[in-house]
Amino acid sequence: MNKQNNKLGWLFASPYLIFGLVFFLGPLIWSLYLSFTNWDLIAPTFDFVGFDNFRKALASEGVRSAFWVTYKFMMLFVPLVTIMSLGVAVVVQGLPKFKSVYLIGFFLPYLSSGVVASLIAQGFLSYNSPVNEFLRGNFGINIDWLGSPLSALFIVGLILAWKFTGYYALILTSGLESIDKEVYEAAAIDGVTDRQRFWKITLPLLYPALYTTLILSFGVTFGIFTEVYQLTGGGPNYATNTWQMEIYNQAFNNLQAGYASSIAILASIVTFISIFIIRKVLEGWGKRNGWV
Q: All domains of the chain, ordered by start, with CATH?
């Protein structure tokens, strides 16, 4: 019976396993091999160059900028989307009815195309947009929203936060619903204020849902591409040059597929190490609250 169950389990898991082998493990091995070559994406042959690509990448201004820009986006996007999604979850959870309708409304941006959202933002912030014309005509202010490193970084982070807020709010709302109401009733009897209830009861008991959303949001910052590609192209002056943007430019604009593969490997290493450290920090917070 156990053997039959094992076979059945492998059978049901096989589509995902096959998908992973074909579209993840295979390309990963091929990319690792290419990182030691000088393939230009066109030539049928290429030479083995050893660790030259990695040495070049470590000395590259574009790679260094991708490393730091990722953490800049992290410091902007993660707190912003966490506060926004938590606020939405708390408000929706307190509604007497139609909770699902409001959650679906907030979730819709997550289903929208990043290209469309970026094009709308680009038109909204263009030189001749109503916003800029109003600022110039009434206050004499002329802002190059996507030409300034700080504002370009903020705009991309804000678009991403708008997109993911509804998705994370769904997870957090589910976490809020799972908290035993008797805990709040006991706290009310003891005279706990609303602020104390939120910080001392709600947040600690919301740890599983918060852990999930935080890990997901940290992961997003290592994969930013569409919004940056559409709005800034990694500029100005590498201010929004992410890992994916640097890999794309080297592989498809400069036709250095081998070099781009080495950058991709470095990006994977940085991502795994960063997420591992973040997980340990979050698990330490959970342990202090009795979850781990």
A: 60-288 (1.10.3720.10)
Cβ-Cβ contacts under 8 Å for 280 (sequence gap 6 or more) = none
pLDDT tens, residue order, the chain (292 aa): 666 677 888 888 888 889 888 888 888 888 899 999 998 888 888 889 989 999 999 999 999 999 999 999 999 999 999 999 999 998 888 877 888 888 888 888 888 888 888 888 888 888 788 888 888 888 887 888 888 888 899 999 999 999 999 999 999 998 888 888 888 888 888 788 878 888 888 888 889 999 999 999 999 999 999 999 998 888 888 899 999 999 999 999 999 999 999 999 999 999 999 999 999 999 988 888 777 6
Contact 70, 228 (CB under 8 A): no
